């Protein structure tokens, strides 16, 4: 709810929901931020006002006020605020001090639509504040949703001079006190690694300059102190910028928006520029409380409405199974095997078009490769559907290979900024700023979707952009236009975005694509850090997570099939490996795995996710569904002769009685080959035919676990089976070694 009231002869606005509040005071020249955080009331306005007192040394006064000592909602240079400014404009010759003055404010009981940029949707109240200067008008929008606040700005040139905008932030706010800033950083196959730094007098900056939101620095970040956490994000997929800096007066200035690096945007009379929408939320219940607020917001207000809380199918993706080397017969064989395992969606990845036998040719063309697919995509789609599965297809529409029919016909459609061109993965980007390029993509992708009964699209993009500044921003606007035109008319088509993994894991893409491929790294031990990082600001329903072959091609690390499954459960689960190389034991375990996921799919995809405390070198995740709680315990490197470990869970009734069951898991005989000589009169090598045959056929079970106990005991922690202690296989132990894991299902007894 947003309320307007008068206090101390000044307009005030209180934006308040169940988790946060924002209290704004309107002066003629400034918009003060009296409070952002825990919900407060109108009666707090007097207590939360700031008495500037005497000037700080060399500070200056403007109309009797010292802007440098105020907590503000938006600011500009030239009137006494010497902190970082969110807006910089000029007339081409000199910088302009806009001197905005309050003009009007209104409360709207809905979202105020944007023209070119995506934004949050759903029920909300919006505060629209208008500020006016001689040259331009500044519109500030604050939209209050159930668990988050969004902010954005629009600048309109109302004067006769052409204005040049070189910096224009979506949001700026001054928070009280000191904070730690947590960002999600990394690179290809190591996305979303958490890093925390103390915000001090030197500015902390989180930004991308790759043309996209990037896996180097995700646009989302967290400010925290004690148990108070502020979460920030941006509904944008291009070069972003956010900063936090402490002032002498103990305010931390926070801003978010399009990166101003090399950015210039000219506005003639009547023209406007709109910023992307910034998102912020608050929790006084720590990181997990912040997760809950942001996850709810993303699931309800960001992902396409058709897919909000709609369960996603178990998919099989062909890429790691065959890459470019496939025939229709091989794909049909894989599809039959995937169906036998319980998969519901078969996805043909790269290699189905043009001369696409490697990543060196074919991108940009949409002609079917009939040598590989004699009955075309339509024929393969029919065969997959006849098995009772859905069919999906991979595209990379934004790129073109120089060795392609499209490039030979339209070299001017590609982006050229240097001589010679800068290539990435043997490709150039198509210039989505051009209407004819966008039309070409929309026409061809739409046609293939419609003619081949495609229910899922994997939209890939595999290089950084050479564009900078306004050109990079205009490319993103073009991308949004393409996505909107293709998928707005086809809301039931499940779109999964990918950009060499998580190079574009952001809220802008999620407004079109309800799930994103989190990383090309499918090693579950690496995925622990990647998915924990992503989960700080994005729900598990948005995280593509697949079982792949071991040893993993990204790390050469061998991991148990059970752990690959257990990690993948906490996301949008799928399979991505050569099903023809599976043993009979693998097939049995994968069937059981897929069945288990389906049974608990709703909890895994949409349950309340928490990261629980774990022992050293381990992780513990929990999801709370409607009628169950599921806990996963994951180990990295283990040590010998370890002591007990306890299973803890939250969100339970202390006095209620619960049943706790561990998911059944299998071991492999080869793990114990060197010990056979201690119990039998033979000493077979680990790679012997005997051991390999036994490993393919013998279902060697790990320890079972079943207990009935109270919610209070689970909150405190109940002891689990001991881990392997070096005395041989024992059916009562968790005989897992390095990289072992378990998943426990907790259900209330009647």
Describe the structure.
Strands 8, 9, 10, 11, 13, 14, 16, 17, 21 and 22 form a 10-stranded antiparallel sheet that branches. Strands 23-24-25-28-29-30-31-32 form an 8-stranded parallel barrel, surrounded by 4 helices. Strands 6, 7, 12, 15, 18, 19 and 20 form a 7-stranded antiparallel sheet that branches. The relative contact order is 0.08. Helix 9 (524-535) packs parallel to helix 10 (561-569). It is α+β, with helices and mostly antiparallel strands and 750 residues long. Helix 8 links the parallel strand 29 (494-497) and strand 30 (515-517). The model has no long low-confidence stretch (mean pLDDT 94). Helices cover 20% and strands 30% of the residues. Among the domains are: 2-302, Beta-galactosidase, Chain A, domain 5; 629-665 and 702-748, Immunoglobulin-like (Sandwich), CATH 2.60.40.
What's the SSE blueprint?
Elements: E1 2-7, E2 10-16, E3 21-26, E4 31-37, E5 72-74, E6 87-90, E7 95-96, E8 101-108, E9 125-132, E10 136-144, E11 149-157, E12 163-176, E13 180-185, E14 193-198, E15 204-207, E16 217-225, E17 228-235, E18 240-246, E19 251-258, E20 265-267, E21 272-274, E22 277-283, H1 286-302, E23 315-317, H2 319-322, H3 328-341, E24 345-348, H4 376-386, E25 390-395, E26 399-400, H5 405-409, E27 428-429, H6 435-451, E28 456-459, H7 469-487, E29 494-497, H8 507-510, E30 515-517, H9 524-535, E31 543-547, H10 561-569, E32 572-575, H11 584-599, H12 601-606, E33 608-612, E34 618-624, E35 629-635, E36 646-647, E37 657-662, E38 666-667, H13 689-697, E39 700-701, E40 706-710, H14 711-716, E41 718-719, E42 741-748
Helix pairs in contact: 6-7, 9-10, 10-11
């Amino acid at each position: 709810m947003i309320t307007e009231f008068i206090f101390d002869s000044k307009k005030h606005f209180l934006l308040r929901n169940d988790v946060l509040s924002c209290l704004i005071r309107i002066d003629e020249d400034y918009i003060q931020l009296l409070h952002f955080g825990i919900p407060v009331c109108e009666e707090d306005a007097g207590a939360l006002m700031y008495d500037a007192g005497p000037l700080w040394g060399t500070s200056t006064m403007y109309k009797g006020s010292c802007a440098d000592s105020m907590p503000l909602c938006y600011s500009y240079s030239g009137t006494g605020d010497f902190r970082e400014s969110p807006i910089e404009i000029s007339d081409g010759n000199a910088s302009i001090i806009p001197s905005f003055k309050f003009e009007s404010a209104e409360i709207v009981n809905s979202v105020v639509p944007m023209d070119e940029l995506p934004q949050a949707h759903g029920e909300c109240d919006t505060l629209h504040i208008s500020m006016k200067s001689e040259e331009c008008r500044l519109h500030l929008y604050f939209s209050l949703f159930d668990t988050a606040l969004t902010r954005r700005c629009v600048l309109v040139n109302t004067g006769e001079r052409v204005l040049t905008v070189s910096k224009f932030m979506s949001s700026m706010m001054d928070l009280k006190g000191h904070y730690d800033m947590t960002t999600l950083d990394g690179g290809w196959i190591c996305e979303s690694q958490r890093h925390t730094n103390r915000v001090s007098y030197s500015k902390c900056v989180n930004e991308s300059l790759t043309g996209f939101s990037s896996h180097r620095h995700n646009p989302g970040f967290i400010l925290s102190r004690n148990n108070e956490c502020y979460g920030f994000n941006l509904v944008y997929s291009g070069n972003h910028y956010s900063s936090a800096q402490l002032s002498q007066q103990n305010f931390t200035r926070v801003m978010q928006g399009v990166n101003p690096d090399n950015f210039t945007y000219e506005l003639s009379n009547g023209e406007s520029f709109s910023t992307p929408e910034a998102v912020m939320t608050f929790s006084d219940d720590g990181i997990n409380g912040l997760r809950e607020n942001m996850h709810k917001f993303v699931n309800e207000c960001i992902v396409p409405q058709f897919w909000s809380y709609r369960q996603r199918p178990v998919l099989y993706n062909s890429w790691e199974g065959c890459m470019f080397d496939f025939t229709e017969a091989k794909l049909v064989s894989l599809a039959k095997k995937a169906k036998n395992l319980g998969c519901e969606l078969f996805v043909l990845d790269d290699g189905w078009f043009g001369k696409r036998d490697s990543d060196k040719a074919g991108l940009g063309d949409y002609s079917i490769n009939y040598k590989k697919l004699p009955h075309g995509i339509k024929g393969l789609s029919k065969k997959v559907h006849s098995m009772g599965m859905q069919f999906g297809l991979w595209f990379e529409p934004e790129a073109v290979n120089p060795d392609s029919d499209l490039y030979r016909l339209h070299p001017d459609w590609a982006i050229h900024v240097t001589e010679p061109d800068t290539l990435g993965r043997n490709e150039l980007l198509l210039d989505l700023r051009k209407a004819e390029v966008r039309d070409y993509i929309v026409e061809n992708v739409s046609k293939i979707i419609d003619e081949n009964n495609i229910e899922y699209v994997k939209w890939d993009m595999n290089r950084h952009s050479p564009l900078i500044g306004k050109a990079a921003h205009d490319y993103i606007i073009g991308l949004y236009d393409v996505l909107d035109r293709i998928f707005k008319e086809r809301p039931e088509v499940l779109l999964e975005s990918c950009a060499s993994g998580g190079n574009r894991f952001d809220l802008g893409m999620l407004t079109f694509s309800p799930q994103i491929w989190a990383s090309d790294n499918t090693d579950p031990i690496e995925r622990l850090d990647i998915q924990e990082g992503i989960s700080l600001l994005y729900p598990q329903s948005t995280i593509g997570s697949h079982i792949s072959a071991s040893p993993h091609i990204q790390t050469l690390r061998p991991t148990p099939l059970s752990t690959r499954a257990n990690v993948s459960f906490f996301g949008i689960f799928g399979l991505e490996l050569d099903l023809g190389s599976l043993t009979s034991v693998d097939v049995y375990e994968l069937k059981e795995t897929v069945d288990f996921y389906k049974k608990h799919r709703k909890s895994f995809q949409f349950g309340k996710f928490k990261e629980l405390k774990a022992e050293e070198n381990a992780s513990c995740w929990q999801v709370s569904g409607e009628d169950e709680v599921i806990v996963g315990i994951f180990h990295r490197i283990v040590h010998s002769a370890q002591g007990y470990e306890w299973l803890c869970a939250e969100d339970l009734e202390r006095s209620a009685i619960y049943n706790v069951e561990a998911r059944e898991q299998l071991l492999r005989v080869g793990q114990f080959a060197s010990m056979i000589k201690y119990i039998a009169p033979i000493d077979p090598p680990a790679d012997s035919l005997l051991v390999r045959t036994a490993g393919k056929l013998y279902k060697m079970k790990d320890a079972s676990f079943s207990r009935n106990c109270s919610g209070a005991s689970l909150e405190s922690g109940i002891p689990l089976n001991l881990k392997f202690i070096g005395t041989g296989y024992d059916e009562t132990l968790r005989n897992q070694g390095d990289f072992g894991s378990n998943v426990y299902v907790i259900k209330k007894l009647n």
